[in-house]
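Worked problem 6 (solution included).
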Amino acid sequence: MNINYIKAFEDNYIWTIEKDDKIIVVDPGDSVPVLNYLKNKKLVAILLTHKHMDHVGGVQELKNKCGAKVYGPVETKEYNDVTVKEDDEFEVLDEIFKVILTAGHTEGHISYLMEDNLFCGDALFLAGCGRVFTKDYKKSYEGLLKLKSLDDDTKVYPAHEYSLSNLEFAKSVISNEDLDREYERVKKLREENKITLPSTIGKEKKINPFLLARNLEEFIIFRNKKDNF
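Solution. The predicted structure is:
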């Protein structure tokens, strides 16, 4: 099993989970780069984390052309073949996917854990987290606490290349050597136009202000500062 990525739009990543000639994709906001990537491979499933168009915009065409089975939360039910919820488990390509509710960015945002691989959409980024469009900061914080409780070696696959700007914000509110090292690593990669992901839960627990927040109140303070950064 291999995990790769397809670039979309300005900074989206459509993650692929591949076994032999079969592929699962996560959050295909655009069908064109996915179809170009497939070539002689078969798209068997699409996993959706939430309803925003840069995550679901390519779904219908991919369903029509490839016959892929779509898994998603209630808020993407217009595309879903299987609607999933917190703690559900399902199997695709002999891999077990566990559903984690990570709401706040949207009402029903979910993440998927496959072995030690976390596909978290816009819930968690390297050194950051998604905007809380619902204004339900409690749910957003609770979702991040679930992710923080995963094993440190869990690899984190967010849907956007926001790492450098997130680290710049992180350095404005926290300070440690791990953060400084990660900033230099990411800065060099972005200067070379290279991907900075995946991260890990262990790394995020050291450099991500939203996982370092000591309580809900501090999380809200950090989130509001980030929104105005």
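Discussion: The chain has a mean pLDDT of 98.
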